[in-house]
């Protein structure tokens, strides 16, 4: 079957670091996306990993291990505005059935406290 | 770049009426657009994949006669919720993929539908 797991909620203080893990079991895996979604708003793109390893982009970094079916999003120097839901999404190979569609995890609500 | 708009942002309608939601890619051509639905405190559920000039591909359990999708051009896809009922009340979000920019999907701001 197809399954994407990530923790429901994480709490951290301002200035700290938080790591959000995502594990997946899926066929036709192509790559893994991380999106940020504030309440009542649409998701915004954070990162995309296709190859194994770490991708760093400012305060946010994302890691992928294809052999382990595992990814994490690392948020450094947390700010209050980082309080949001973080969605892990698996992209599938382009076929006439999938068209590169995304399958989303349930999201991890990150709460940043002062 | 990669801006996607949706209209309307919010709609309230009576049960039994139909509602059309537009999704536009403003600064790129979207060969593929996706329609999602999101209930409160839940993740995005893909409803259908819309390809320009061809019929949409619906996910299992999504009624294609109830959720009509038209992808008439490379910058516009529409979702029509026909004979809406209160259980159709949800947050509907579209995304668009620019084949020249790779795999990333860019999301519209969403449409909040409330059916009374």
List the SSEs and their pairings.
The complex is a heterodimer of chains A (114) and B (116).
Chain A: E1 3-5, E2 9-13, E3 18-25, E4 29-37, E5 44-49, E6 53-57, E7 60-65, E8 70-75, E9 84-92, E10 102-104, E11 108-113
Parallel strand pairs in A: 2-11
Antiparallel strand pairs in A: 1-3, 3-8, 4-5, 4-9, 6-7, 7-8, 9-10, 9-11
Chain B: E1 4-7, E2 10-13, E3 19-25, E4 32-38, E5 45-51, E6 57-58, E7 67-73, E8 76-81, E9 90-97, E10 105-107, E11 111-115
Parallel strand pairs in B: 2-11
Antiparallel strand pairs in B: 1-3, 3-8, 4-5, 4-9, 5-6, 7-8, 9-10, 9-11
Summarize the structure.
Chain A is mainly β and 114 residues long. Helix content of chain A is 0%, strand content 58%. In chain A, strands 2, 4, 5, 9, 10 and 11 form a six-stranded mixed beta sheet that branches. Chain A has a five-stranded antiparallel beta sheet with strand order 1-3-8-7-6, with no helix packed on it.
Key traits:
heterodimer; A: 114 residues; mainly beta; 6-stranded mixed sheet; 11 strands; 0% helix; B: 116 residues; 7-stranded mixed sheet; 4-stranded antiparallel sheet; globular
Please summarize the sheet with the most strands of chain B: 7 strands, mixed
User: Which descriptor suits the 3D outline of chain B?
Assistant: globular
Helical percentage of chain A? under 10%
Largest β-sheet summary of chain A: 6 strands, mixed
Q: Which sequence of SSEs, written as H and E, runs from N to C of chain B?
A: EEEEEEEEEEE
Structural class of chain B: mainly beta
The string of secondary-structure elements of chain A, in order, is EEEEEEEEEEE
| Strand tally of chain A | 11
Oligomer: heterodimer
- Head-to-tail CA distance between termini of chain A: 41 Å
The Cα radius of gyration of chain B reads 13 Å
Q: What share of the residues of chain A does DSSP label as strand, in percent?
A: over 45%
Given helix and strand content, the structural type of chain A is mainly beta
Query: How confident overall, as mean pLDDT of chain A?
Result: 91
